[in-house]
Design a protein that fits this description.
226 residues, 7 helices, 0% strand
Amino acid sequence: MDSHPDSPARTGRLVGILLFVQLAGLIVPFILLHPITSTAFLDTAAASAPQLRTAVGLLFANAALTIVIATLAFNTLRTHVPAMALWLLTASVLWFMAQAADNAHVLSMVSLSRRYTDGSGANAEMFEALASAARSTRIWMHYTALLLVEAWFLVFYAVLFRAALVPRPLALLGVAMVFLHAVGVTLPMFIGFEPTPMLAPSLALSHVAIGAWLIAKGFPAEARTR
């Protein structure tokens, strides 16, 4: 019954598949970015430039994929929750912009490392000062981008809940995981506390659950808004 290419069921299944791709696009680049996460990045980043550029490319692609997901689901969402459909699209664009800024900081750190290694450590004190500033700036940009990622997840799960596009307890699980991730990982940085890394996978758990449901069921033909 869902053979039409624009049917809600087919659209929902495609969104579910893309949620898994999106999740991989968040995890894999962060692993690849390891060479710039230590205070010794001046010595390591230049040698890992291809790996870091790959990470930046994947993060760009993933941010663009987020816009694709919001656009793909837009017609279905607009039917049931038009204002929230626009919020999701806006959050997607903000995610892309924040990721672009974060990527620029990553590439700046790579360039700084290359200048340092090409000069064989000349003006070491100056480079150490620049490295400290660059790393600090990138950390704050990264956590700002994470806040916008969490905002996208929150809007996405709220849309699913409002229109009952997945079982509402499942959507509520997603909302709860967003708050758990924000309280445990992102917000502590802004209020002067250490993050809790063990809470980082919380968003992955809800995204896998909702993605799997959408792949199995798709969007319902009729959604509720009450």
